[in-house]
Design goal:
The structure is a single chain. The chain has 13 helices and 25 strands. Strands 5, 6, 8, 9, 11, 12, 14, 15, 17, 18, 20, 22 and 24 form a 13-stranded mixed β-sheet that branches. A 10-stranded mixed β-sheet has the order 4-3-7-10-13-16-19-21-23-25. A two-stranded antiparallel sheet has the order 1-2. β3 and β4 form a beta hairpin. With 470 residues, it is of the alpha/beta class.
């Protein structure tokens, strides 16, 4: 009799794990020195202020200690990480047909540009350290919407806007990996939505890290002006290698007065990835930020999107699901700062752990003294699929206003044997029964995603659940 599969390593993840020979046209030496930063800056043809910014960030990185309060990242050695890999294309393309064949095949396997043709207003595709493709629908561009790679914006007509906003929400002094990002960032997208413009269908950027032993450090900068509306989708994946890879991107979101931004992410990094990403939004009067986050991959994650509710009546909604399997320690959550009266935040998360995986939810909510009549509600639920996994909830609330309305709820449980038995009595296999229960548990996230991404998330759950009962 064939042995039952009991480990994630045994599962065929070829849909995401395929890779091509590492034929990059330029690969900087591994490590992190002043000479390497200067070489990256020359490769990027940075303006002088950006070169100085990078070198100052390197100084900040060297002066700061590694975080010692979360999952162990001692296996991450920056001396072994390549911080810049230029793929085998000399420039970014606006025509999909011009993208090199192996890169094009990679993204086509992942559903790009099919999803662009079907349901997206614009697509950016990053491969290793560079954007290789960027395009926006004509009718969206005619509304005045800007969607381009951030480096073109840095050198073009939006250079002043970039300089005004770049790493102002997430300064390099924020933490060690923000400083690293400031030193070695490369690639990423820039979006500007003019006042009153509603982008009816989403924009998407997809990040693929193909090179082994490398890091990806894209910077996403989005400005949604007064009364505007946008849904932006971020997708991430990488093949599995036997060496550590690093993702330390940065997302800065500026949501104007009475504007709305939904930022959706499906992260499916491989199990050798250290995902140390930083995301932050600032919301003005009457504005709204909505985070929808699905975290399935990586060996270790530190990921806590932060919302700063700066304007009266501004609002944040955070909906997330995390799935930690064997060999994964996913430390995720969110931070919210109420800085103005009548602000509202709602947090609703699900975390799932199996096969010894560790899932930790951290929330930090601050209601400052001038945030009168603000409301915050945090609900986090955890599901453990066996007795060797772990799930922790670490909430922190700093309430400095007597008129605030504050609520927190946390629940941890296991799959009901009765529910599994009931489904099996209806002809469903045990594996499928457990996958259905987990999918239902995660429904609060999947129902917030566009259809094709909800399908992808449910497929990922099934991949992780397949063969888990030995």
């Amino acid at each position: 009799m064939a042995e039952n599969k009991t480990r994630i390593d045994d599962i065929d993840r070829s849909f995401y794990d395929f890779r091509f020979e590492d034929k990059d046209s330029y690969r900087i030496q591994s490590g992190l020195t002043r000479e390497i930063i200067e070489e990256i800056s020359r490769e990027k043809n940075d303006p002088e202020w950006m070169t100085e910014f990078r070198l100052k960030s390197l100084e900040t990185f060297n002066a700061m200690s590694m975080p010692d309060w979360g999952p162990d990242i001692s296996g991450l050695n920056m001396d072994n990480i390549v911080t810049y890999v230029r793929p085998n294309t000399e420039r970014m393309h606006a025509s999909w047909d011009e993208v090199p064949e192996d890169i094009k095949t990679t993204f086509e396997k992942l559903g790009i540009p099919q999803s662009e043709r079907d349901s997206l207003a614009g697509v950016g595709a990053q491969y290793d350290s560079e954007l290789v493709y960027h395009n926006i629908r004509k009718e969206v561009a005619e509304q005045g919407v800007v969607y381009t790679d951030i480096e073109s914006a840095l050198h073009g007509e939006y250079k002043d806007m970039i300089r005004e906003h770049f790493m102002k929400l997430v300064p390099p002094s924020d933490h060690k990996f923000a400083a690293l990002h400031g030193a070695v960032w490369s690639g990423g997208s820039f979006v500007y939505v003019p006042p009153g413009v509603s982008v009816e269908i989403p924009l998407q950027s997809y990040f693929r890290l193909n090179a082994p032993g490398a890091g990806q450090f894209e910077h996403t900068l989005i400005i949604v002006d007064k009364g505007a509306d946008l849904h932006f989708i971020e997708g991430c994946s990488a093949p599995k290698y036997n060496v550590a890879n690093l993702h330390a991107g940065c997302v800065e979101l500026f949501v104007g007065e009475n504007a709305r931004l939904r930022y959706s992410t499906i992260e499916n990094w491989s199990k050798n990835m250290y995902n140390l990403n930083t995301k932050r939004a600032r919301v003005e009067k009457g504005g709204r930020i909505e985070w929808v986050s699905g975290s399935f991959g990586s060996h270790v994650s530190y990921l806590y999107p932060m919302s700063i509710l700066n304007g009266e009546g501004s609002r944040c909604e955070f909906t997330g699901v995390t799935f930690a399997g064997e060999g994964q320690n996913l430390d995720t959550g969110c931070k919210i700062v109420h800085n103005a009266p009548d602000t509202t935040s709602v947090v609703n998360t699900r975390s799932i752990s199996k096969s010894g995986g560790i899932s930790t939810f951290r929330s930090a909510v601050v209601v400052n003294k001038n945030a009168e009549n603000s409301k915050t509600s945090v609900s986090c639920q955890s599901l453990m699929l066996d007795d060797i996994s772990r799930s922790d909830t670490i909430p922190a609330m700093d309430i400095r206003c007597g008129s605030a309305n504050v609520g927190h709820e946390a629940r941890i449980g296991k799959i009901s044997d009765d529910a599994v038995f009931y489904l099996m009595s209806r002809g469903v296999s045990e594996d499928e029964a457990r996958a259905l229960i987990v999918s239902g548990f995660a429904e609060n996230v999947s129902k917030e995603l566009p259809l094709e991404y909800a399908v992808e998330m449910n497929n990922l759950i099934r991949i992780e659940m397949k063969g888990t009962v030995g």
